[in-house]
Amino acid sequence: MKIAVLGGGNGSYAAAADFTLAGHQVRFWRRDFAAFGSLADGQPLRLLDHAGSHDLALACVTADMGEAVRGAELIVCPAPAFAQMDIAGLLAPHLADGQVIYLPPGTFGSYLMAAACRAAGSQADVAFAETGTLPWLTRRRPDQDGLQTVAITTRASRLPSGVYPARHSERALALISQAFPDAIEPVEDALCAALMNAGPIIHPPLILMNAGPIVHFDKWDIHNEGTQPEIRAVHDALDGERIRLREMLGYQPPHFPLRDHYHTSDWMYGNLAHDRLVDSGDWHEKLDLKDHRYMTEDIAMGLCFLTTLGEAMGLEMPVAAGLLALGSVAAGQDFRQTGRSWQSCGLADLDKAELSRLLVEGAG
User: Fold this and answer.
1) CATH number, residue 345
2) Which of 81, 173, 211, 337 is deepest in the core (most CB within 10 A)?
């Protein structure tokens, strides 16, 4: 299958490597061609995983969006939520009927990117889909033997995925399943998938309740040194608010409660995922509290979206709202005004029936 991978973060490198390893033809795009480093000179991408080391020749690396997506059946965009609107503007002129764009995860970017592509003039009949987590626990590592290197600690075994508009679900999820065999689990629609997003549940308590050591120490592992029972209790309370919102909106189980990540093999990454993450040492790292993706994506985008949607539906969201307020103070900006809120999505005036129709049929 021809797959375009968009973005320059850990997840995009893991996607490019993993799809190539599986035999797909990968076109890898990022906006700064020089940032490809040795890949720009035609060198392989090195993947490290449980099976060892793999040096992989990508079909194409490019800063030309048209070259990346032209003819691609699947477009995978693991870029952070705050980058989605810029990417949509670059993507819109090159989309063609039948293509599928997959956001792992999306933070309801499936709807917002579709709207942005329409606003930019695209008339292509495409499907946007999203899931609840990045499909890889992954980090880039320093170059080895002059090669760009990415390590995958584990791969997701369950990816609850929803499509916008949902009328395209069967076709879109069948295509995505070719890239993620046996992992895709269909859910009702894109909003259901957005409310599976694990980042806004895991990361806000970890970075805010570890703010002191994050700032003080050169490196700090929030998943090891920073995960105590008291912080897990906040996780569970926050996740309870997410699940109540899902139930209020009529979404069916499984809700993928976060406690399963820590205590069972039933969560998205399967057996012993948290232990593997900690044992890898890749998350013992320097975090810039204000600028790290955990703040700029998981709080400013994901947690803001969750909190304001819940409030718009009449739910009390005290834990989510409290963490959102603390994050705003720590970052020095009001995320309710600058982040991704239900109001900023432009859907706050819809009643539940109108929202349901939009999610299934799409706009326009």
Assistant:
1) 1.10.1040.10
2) 81
Query: Per residue in 302-346, pLDDT tens?
Result: 999 999 999 999 999 999 999 999 999 999 999 999 999 999 999
- Ramachandran class of 346: left when φ > 0, alpha when ψ lies in -120 to 50, beta otherwise: left
User: Same structural domain for residues 50 and 150?
Assistant: yes
Pairwise CA distance, residues 158 & 267, whole Å = 7
Model pTM?
A: 0.96
- CA–CA separation, 46 vs 141, rounded Å? 10
Same domain flag for 175 and 231 = no
Q: Structural domain of residue 316, as residue ranges?
A: 200-361
Q: What is the pLDDT of residues 50-61, one digit of tens each?
A: 999 999 999 999
φ, ψ of residue 160 to 5 degrees: the values are -65, 120
Q: Which two tokens stand for residue 128?
A: 């946007």
Per the structure, the count of domains in the chain is: 2
Spatial separation of the C-alpha atoms in residues 257 and 273, rounded to whole Å: 15
Peptide bond into 105 cis (omega under 30): yes
With 0-12 CB in 10 A as exposed, 13-18 as middle and 19+ as buried, what is 82?
middle
